[in-house]
Amino acid sequence: MQNQIEPPPEAGRDDQTVEMDLSSITSLDFTCYQLHDLDSVELPPNLTELDLTTNRLSSLDPRIANLVKLKNLSFRQNLLKDAAVEPISHWDSLSGLEELIFRDNKLTKIPDVGVFKKLLVFDVSFNEITSLQGLSKASGTIKELYVSKNEVTKMEEIDHLHELQILELGSNRLRVMENLQNFTKLQELWLGRNRIKVINLCGLSCIKKISLQSNRLTSMRGLEDCIALEEIYLSHNGIAKMEGLSKLVNLRVLDVSTNKLTSIDDIQNLTKLEDLWLNDNKIESLDGLAEAVSGSREKLTTIYLENNPCAKSPNYTATLKQIFPNIEQIDSEVFA
C-alpha cells in the first residue's frame, strides 16, 4: 500500500486534534502487529486501504463495515474460519470495495462476496477450500482471481467472470481444464501442481502466460491456436515431443525442462524467443541445434541444457556461444 500513515499517538493531545488527524488518514497498515482483535485500534472513517496482514485475528471487527470509502481490504495470514467471515455477506455499505484478500487463513469454502459489486481482485489462496461453489455469487467485475494452494477438484461457477485477466488455480486437485470459453480477456492462467492430463483452452486465443508445471501432461497439443502467448511453463511433466509451437510467434519464454524430450523441434519460427529451458531431458546431441533455433539465434539470451546427454559434449559452452552470439546465460553460468 502506498502513502501509508500510522495511527496518530493520542497521548498529550486534545480530542479535537486527534479527531482532525484521524479524518485525514486514508491508509492503515497493521502488517505483523500480531493483533488478536482490533479493540485497541481506531479506524478512521475515511480509510480507503486497510491492511491486516499477519495478525492473529479470528473474527471480523464489525466497525469495518462502516468504512464506506474502503477500496482495499486485506486479512492475509490470519486465523479466520468460515463462520468468522460470514458477516461480510451483509456489508452492503462497502459498495466501492475493489480488493479483498483472505489469503492464508482457515477457510474451507468460498466466502459470499456478492455484495461487492465493484470487486476487481479476490484472493482466497492458501486455505483449505475444497470447491469453487459459491463463486457464482461473485461480481462479474473481477479481473484477478487467486485460489491457489487449496483442495479444489473442479473448475466450476466461474464462467460468468467475463472480465477476468488473471486466474490462479495452482496447487489444487484439478484433473480437467474446463469452463474457460467465456474468458475472452484472460491474460494469465496458472494451473501448476495439479493432475491435468490434457491441455484444453476451450478456444481462447488471448492468453499471454500459461503455467502447467508439475501436472500429468504427455503432449503439448492444445496450445497451437493461442498466438498471443508470450510465456509457457510446462516443466515437470511427461512430454516427449515439442509440437504446436510454430505459430506462437510472440513467444519470449519457453520452459519444457524436466520432461522426456529427445530433440528440439517446432521452434524455428520463434523470432522473439529469449529464454529456452530444456534442462533435465534426454537430448543426446547438439547437432542440428543451430537449425532448430534458427529464428531466435540473435534474440536468445538464456538457455538451459544441463542434465541432458548433450551437456557432456566436448566444447559444450563454446558451441552454444557460437550458435547464440548474444547469449548471457548458459545453465547456471552467467556471462558479464
Automatic annotation (TrEMBL):
Coiled coil: none annotated. Keywords: Leucine-rich repeat, Repeat. InterPro entries: Leu-rich_rpt (IPR001611), Leu-rich_rpt_4 (IPR025875), Leu-rich_rpt_typical-subtyp (IPR003591), LRR_dom_sf (IPR032675). The keyword Repeat applies. The keyword Repeat applies. This is Protein phosphatase 1 regulatory subunit pprA. It comes from Hibiscus sabdariffa.
